[in-house]
TrEMBL record:
This is GZF1 protein. GO terms for cellular component: nucleus. It comes from the Eukaryota. One of its GO terms (molecular function) is RNA polymerase II cis-regulatory region sequence-specific DNA binding. Its main location: nucleus.
Length: 193
């Protein structure tokens, strides 16, 4: 009698693995590469794991996989024109799948994601930028609607909006100009004749 295969899958294992790799990096354990970044004279070194960088960034994957055997394994990578704070945020994101940055840094994070070819960070930045844009558009729409309401109230003080019955009266054939009929109604009737 043949046994049916079953799937053993952990939902928490990926998060646990990420958390453990992050802790190892923070403690400097098992790190096999140092990434040096420099921007306008500010420089910093970051210890990391090649496997994590290569798995999350096509840029690093290409760098590590294209190492020449004669040179030996690369233990240092130098990045210029990358701000220290941005690379620190990038590392936090690839090791934890989240990072908190100021709104004005989202565009810079998108740029570093594109430079380092990190698809997950690019997608996350695009989603956040879309949410921010939608929020701004909603605020503008609400502001515009409130401005229109204020302008209408200022133009017609003490006048209440017309009810449906009054609107129907304007369209009736016996409506007289000045009594609920619009100024456009007589012109429209003249064109019909």
């Amino acid at each position: 009698m043949e046994s049916t295969p079953v799937l053993l899958e952990s939902k928490s294992s990926p998060l646990r693995l990420l958390n453990e790799m992050h802790q190892l990096r923070l403690l400097g354990h098992l790190c096999d590469v140092t990434v040096s970044v420099e921007y306008q004279g500010v420089r910093a070194d970051f210890a990391a794991h090649k496997a994590v960088l290569a798995a999350t960034s096509k840029f690093f994957k290409e760098v590590f996989l294209n190492e020449k055997a004669a040179d030996g394994p690369r233990s240092n990578v130098f990045l210029n024109e990358v701000q220290v704070a941005d690379f620190a945020s990038f590392l936090e994101f690839v090791y934890t799948a989240k990072v908190e940055v100021e709104e004005d840094r989202v565009q810079r994070m998108l740029e570093i994601a594109e430079k380092l070819k990190c698809l997950d960070l690019s997608e996350t930045c695009f989603q956040l930028k879309r949410q921010m844009l939608e929020s701004v558009l909603l605020e503008l729409q609400n502001f515009s609607e409130s401005q229109n309401s204020e302008e209408e109230s200022a133009a017609h003080p003490g006048v209440l909006p017309e009810s449906k019955a009054e609107g129907d009266e304007r369209d009736s054939p016996g409506a007289r100009p000045g009594h609920g009929a619009s100024a456009e109604a007589p012109a429209a009737k003249a064109k019909e004749k």
